[in-house]
């Protein structure tokens, strides 16, 4: 994962949307007034790893749109260059 180059602005935007969604969930269903989660506190590479491991197929596809590296498939192997 260290060799993959991400469009950090795109990933940060996705993180921002997810944090806003989580805050809305907390306030609407759990009655929590505020949380102190900031986008700057989240490691983008760890977020990408989390999505690739545990995310839904649609989330994985969205993340892959943020890759700046070239992804190719040849001989049943995926290569990132």
Automatic annotation (TrEMBL):
| The protein's name | Uncharacterized protein
Superkingdom classification of source: Bacteria
Which organism does this record belong to? Candidatus Yonathbacteria bacterium RIFCSPHIGHO2_02_FULL_44_14
């Amino acid at each position: 994962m260290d060799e993959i180059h991400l469009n950090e602005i795109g990933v940060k935007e996705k993180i921002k949307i997810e944090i806003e969604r989580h805050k809305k969930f907390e306030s609407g269903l759990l009655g929590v007034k505020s949380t102190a989660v900031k986008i700057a506190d989240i490691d983008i590479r760890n977020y990408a790893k989390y999505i690739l491991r545990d995310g839904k197929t649609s989330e994985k596809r969205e993340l892959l749109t943020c890759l700046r590296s070239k992804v190719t498939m040849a001989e049943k192997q995926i290569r990132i260059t």
